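Email to the structure team, subject: prephenate dehydratase model.

Hi all, the expression group asked for a predicted structure before they design truncation constructs. Nothing fancy, just the tokens so they can compare against earlier work. One-line instruction: predict prephenate dehydratase, return tokens.
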Amino acid sequence: MTTSTNRIAFQGELGAYSHEACRKARPGMEALPCRTFEDVIEAVRSHKADLAMLPVENSTYGRVADIHHMLPESGLRIIDEAFVRVRIALMSLPGTRLQDLRHVRAHLVLIPQARGFLTRHGITATASADSAGAAADLARDRTPGEGVMASELAADIHGLEVLARDIEDHHHNTTRFLIMGRQADMTRRAERMLTTFVFRVRNIPAALYKALGGFATNGINMTKLESYMVDGVFTATQFYADVEGHPEDPALQRALEELRYFTSSMEMLGVYPADPLREAQLRAA
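Reply from the structure team: attached below.
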């Protein structure tokens, strides 16, 4: 019997926003950094970690590329979701003053989010592959007059000094993460549950319309529906869906039965509680 590692794997360096998500959602677990999303999934499959923390969408930039392709093939199941507000901190070497800072590095997606702050202070920016990695590089290289935009956690880990907090232009930027494990948890462990699945429709006229009709007639709220090609073939389209409810709810049970009638394949990816921050994010949108 395999014993628990009490580790949760994430993509990126220590101090990444995914690491922050691990700290918030599973504070009692050791965070295991991985180079790629594939490495995160493999860490759980090979029992190097018990759980995976995977970002799936961001309120500013939409879905995370390739994640939806990986989930059905991963062999893992969703057991939780976590919403994390992206708070950008400006950091540098201890003793550096904000007025002495001339240049910063950050992940490509962070730079436009703090454009107003950078412009006001006359600071130029260069894209880096990883914000937390840029923080580690600065701590190692100790380049004078250089800063990094990353999470405050990155500053704590790498011994940098935070010069400014919450420098993003818009304070609603949030990333949604899925927490995945090797085994599904189908228990009803919260009042508000979500169900995620992928499906392909049969090759008949109006198949998608007919497949989704059961959710409307049974009063099921579909919070997400996305399509993407499979294996680069235009005619092979797979749909990813999140709906409110538990599969044992009579209304959702009827909707799923109708969906199966019009699909060539359907796979359940997880049943899990809605994060309490979900409603706050919807109100801010």
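The mean pLDDT is 92. The longest strand covers residues 233-244. Ping us if the truncation boundaries need rechecking.
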